[in-house]
Every structure is written in C-alpha cells, then in structure tokens.
Amino acid sequence: MAEEAQYKDQVIPDYQDNPFIEALPNLLSPHKVVEKLAFYPQYHQNERKLDSHYRIYMVDRLFQVFQPLPMNIELERKISRTLRQGYVFRNPFESKLAQGFCRDYYGTNPVNPKDDDGFYPSSFGFTLIGISGLGKTSSLKRILNMYPQVIVHSEYRGIPFSAYQVVWVKLECPHDGSIKGLLYEFFSEIDRLLGTNYYQKMMKTRATADAMMTVMNQVVRNCSLGLLVIDEIQHLSMAKSGGSEKMLNFFVNLVNNVGVPVILVGTPKAVKVLQGDFRQARRGSGLGGDMVCDRIQKDEVWDLLVSSIWHYQWTRKETPFTPEISSILYEETQGIPDLLKKVYAITQAYAISSGKEEITPYIIRKVAKENLKLVQPMLTALKTGNIREIAKYEDICMTGIDFNDFLTRTKESINLDLRAKEIKKRQNKMKQENLMEEKKEAVLKLVDLGMDAKKAQKIIDTMLSQNQDVSAEGMVEDAMALLKDEGMKEEPEKKGIRKVKGRKEKQSTANPLDIRTIVEQGKKDNKSAYESLKEAGYIISFKDDIFSREVVW
C-alpha cells in the first residue's frame, strides 16, 4: 500500500532539502535496529500441557523467531546508507534530474559517466554473498520492510509536487538465467505496485532485451526508484544472457546510466559471475563493495542465537540450556542458523511423537544424523576446515532439509496412534457394556431361582472383581455352587438352633413342583440347587433355549 509522504527534518546536511530522503523513515541507532528487526512469537508454559497432536503444530512457531545478529545490524546500515546516497544526486528540485528526464524522453545524448559533471557518484550498491541457510534473504526482507515500498508526494513545503516514489524493488533471478526473464519480472513488479501495464506491453511487442532496458531506464526515473535488489544471482547464465559482456552492460547501465543503487545477492557460486572483467567493471561502476556472510562462530553470538529459540519448548519436560547442548548443536549444524532451527524443531517433534517428551543430546544427534544426510558432506568439510572440500560444496542447498515433510510424517504417525487409542477405547466400552448385560442377566436368573436381589448383586459383583471373562451362565453356576457350600455349613447350626428353642417342625404336605421342595430334595441327594432345578426343567441351557431352536411346521 502506498503511503502519503511525511517529511522529516534531517541532521545530515547532504540529506536536507530533498523530499525523497526526507520522506524516508528516520535513521536508527543500532539499539533501535535490533528492536525493529527482532521478532519473538507468543509462548506460554501451559502449552506444554496440551495433547501431543496440538503441540506438534506449535513447533512450527520456531521458524517465526528472528534474533538480530551483528551481521543484520551491519546489513541494515549499508542498505540505509546506500538508499539515501542514491537519492542525494537525484533531488527532484535539482535541474540535472530534469535534464536526465529530457534525455530519456528524446532518446538522445544519454548520460555518460565519463563526461558527466558529477550527476551520479560511483559508490552505488554492493554485493551480498554467503552460503544458503545464513539468513541473507530473510534479513533483507525484514530490513526492506522497515521502509514503505511506495510513497505518494503531492506538496513539499508549500510547493506543488506530484510524484510516486518507489523506495525499493526486490527481484529474484529467473531459473532460466536470462536477462530478459529478469526484465520481465521487473515490469511485473512495477505493475503490481503502481497499477501500470508495462509487462503486457513488453509481451505484446515481443521487445528485445535491449529495447526493454531502454524502457526500464525511463520507468526507473519516472517512479524515482530508490533501490533495486536482485537476489539469487547465481542463477544468471552468461550463455543465456548473451555472454559476460552483455550481462556486464546490463548492471553497469542500471548504476551509471539510470543512477539507481543495485544490491546483488547470491551464494558463492555467484562469484563466478562476478569475477574477472566483471569484477573490475563493478569496482568502477559502484558495485565493488562486497559483504560476505560467513557461518556463525562458536562464541557468544552463537549462544545468543540458540538461547533466543531455546525457551520455545513444547515437550512435557523442560530441558535447560547448557554449554553441552550449545556445543552439540554447533557440532551438528556448524553455525548455520537455518539448520539450527530445523534440527531443534525436528528434535522437539521427535521427542513429542515418540513419547520421550524430553530434549536430550542423544535425540539431537539422532535427528541430525537421520535428517541432514543431504548436507553431511558440506558439514563434514566445514568441521575439518578443508578448503578444497568446502569449495566442492560451496553452493549446497540448505533448504533441502524439509521440516514440513518430517512434520507431516510425524503428524500422520500421531494421528494413527490416536486412531488406535480411539479404537481401543471403543472396544473397552463395548466390553464393559457386554459385561453389564451379562451381569444383569445373571442377577435376574438368580432372583428367579429364589435368591434375594441384593444378595445376588453382591455375589455377582464379587465374582466379577476376580474374573471379568465369564458368561452369565457361568456366573449363575458359580453362584449356585457357592450357595451349596454355604448351605452345607449352615445346616447343622440350624438344627441345633431348632433343638434349643424346642420348637416342633411344622409338618406339611410339600408340593413336589415347588422349587423350594425341589431344592430341599436336591440337598438330600447332595445336589446343588442349580443341578436340581436344571433336572426339573426350571433352568434351560443356552444351547437348549427354545427360542434358538428351528421351528418345524
């Protein structure tokens, strides 16, 4: 989104009375730069109490952490200075800027750095080189986002001044490695920012690279572009760009003829593109300043980086940060920030998914060994310090270690485990329901046999506390056997009581079909109540259940 220009007083004389510079954010001290760049996502200790399938997703939050390091502070300073210096000699209220517009418009007498009287300085831009995984691109994005990308001017100190100021544009070299592809991306980005249609015009006319560069010169002037950042320049191909001379002319044209500062960013492989004749030309054109990003050394900067992410722990058991942990992480990642975050994230995901719920040196080494196979040759070379071996892998891609892939597999494993637990839970529930049905059936059968309901309930509960793998029929049989044993013990005692009380037993004619008579008769024959009632036909076996028999008509 475009912002309305807000002009600020400038302390540095070179930056005064220039609306393009005064509309930029104020210069920042190193302390303020750290505050602006740093980002620490929210975290609460209670999150470690959540279920594993929630915590696995929270590990992603590690990749949001941004801890400013000395390299980031230096890069912010260089970008801030480069941007402002580029505008110093493009003050819209200076006559020479208007002369430049006229030359572009009529296409005559283009600005030549050799005979120009100081219109453009020769100290524009720089190159940023470093292996992947050091945070070059992420640092650039955070620093550039400190500036509004488009500023709208309408009036400057009472003077009508209508202009669009595109503060910065960041491009990525196309994978086909051609200058033409890069130019197409430039026009596409300008169209996105300003609502123009340069890209479509270039496509319709099938313009050549030379013609597109001429139009680019005009567009850069019209939108007062402050800074052009070209990332992944290792993808540039001299062959597809028409040779080193044509590529050289492209960059020199941007700096000398257009006057826009250019920052070239790439891996060590890009050195092949930038060396030789190109290197000499870069020095003369203002692209000679190199900033080389090296891996972090094992010192207080490394400990600062590790400690900034260490308290983001989602394992049940919290592991304190120790010198041993710091050394192991450095040994496994060799001071590469991207690898540090990935190893730490995968370590936590593994600890959570495996149920170990603790970060240990063993798990860190195990995770690094299993998940850093693609970059092990590079890491081994860095450990040994062998320059020749390091050169072989100077452009190895650290982004090949895919945390998301590991996380997906881990989440699938957790989901399978959860499904297995859910199935087991349902099975246990069904088993309990079946057991309750068996228990209910057994109690009812005992009540039908004349037993008191409370006593039947108590006997069955006692049996189930000892063995739950029993059917209703089995419980009834065991209960009747138990009653038989108790009856044999109680019979002499009952006879003694009757004798003491001196009562005469009441003689009565018993009904042979009464179950009490059947049970009493069975006792005399040393049979259990269950056996007696079964013989009399009062108890039907499950296999003899009339409802399960086939009906014959």
Automatic annotation (TrEMBL):
N-terminal signal peptide: none
Record-linked InterPro entries: AAA_22, ExeA_AAA_ATPase_DNA-bind, P-loop_NTPase
Chain spans, region Disordered: 491-511
Domain ORC1/DEAH AAA+ ATPase residues, every copy: 127-274
Source superkingdom: Bacteria
GO molecular function: ATP hydrolysis activity
Pfam families, A to Z: AAA_22
Protein name, per record: ORC1/DEAH AAA+ ATPase domain-containing protein
